[in-house]
Amino acid sequence: MANRLSQIATRTGDDGTTGLGDGTRVPKSHGRIAAMGDVDELNSHLGVLLAEPLPDDVRELLVTIQHELFNLGGELSIPGYKLLKDDAVAALDAALAHYNAALPRLAEFILPAGTRSASLAHVARAVARRAERAVVMLADSEEINAAPRLFLNRLSDLLFVLARVLNRANLDGLGGDDVYWHSARLARNLDPDVN
């Protein structure tokens, strides 16, 4: 990946195709392009999350993850190329264990809500799941290394945990705990006989 962008508007994609990192051109509807786009969107959501007040350790972790996602996108852009290392997945496993250990066990489902930073982490989590599905779908038709799929799977789990951490960090004064889903509340709102 020695080439660097020097010109952004090339107009070469006006015909509905785009170039991969190995120089081949594929339709913009290609599954590889969809997976690359989802990874790019995920990385952009992490950029928005990084614009929020965050604990220093979470900030450092997210910056590292952004770089790994760039590696993942680079790997997807060159068929047969391996850029994302297995230790990137191990690092996510370690972070997941570290942050999850300090959290109380969940007794109920939680809503993707709370502080702004926690809510942004939930949005990123949902995009990570979509990116994972896109990589799995691509692997149905092309050979893909396991690391991208595993990385996205672990990252979505980690972002769920980080959302809980960020609600408790309460850096904007609006959080403090998870926002729990209440099935009884839903039943009460749907049933006119329940008060």
UniProtKB/TrEMBL annotation:
For the region Disordered, give the residue spans: 1-27
- The EC code for this enzyme is 2.5.1.-
Per UniProt, the enzyme's principal EC class comes to transferase
Matching Pfam families: Cob_adeno_trans
- Any transmembrane segments, and where? none
Task: Enumerate the UniProt keywords alphabetically.
Answer: ATP-binding, Cobalamin biosynthesis, Nucleotide-binding, Transferase
| Reactions that this protein is recorded to catalyse | 2 cob(II)alamin + AH2 + 2 ATP = 2 adenosylcob(III)alamin + 2 triphosphate + A + 2 H(+)
Q: Cobalamin adenosyltransferase-like domain location, by residue?
A: 8-165
Care to name a GO molecular-function term for this sequence?
corrinoid adenosyltransferase activity
An example GO biological process term is: cobalamin biosynthetic process
- Family designation: Belongs to the Cob(I)alamin adenosyltransferase family.
Assembly and oligomerization:
Homotrimer.
Q: What is this protein called?
A: Cobalamin adenosyltransferase
Q: Which organism is it from?
A: Scleromatobacter humisilvae
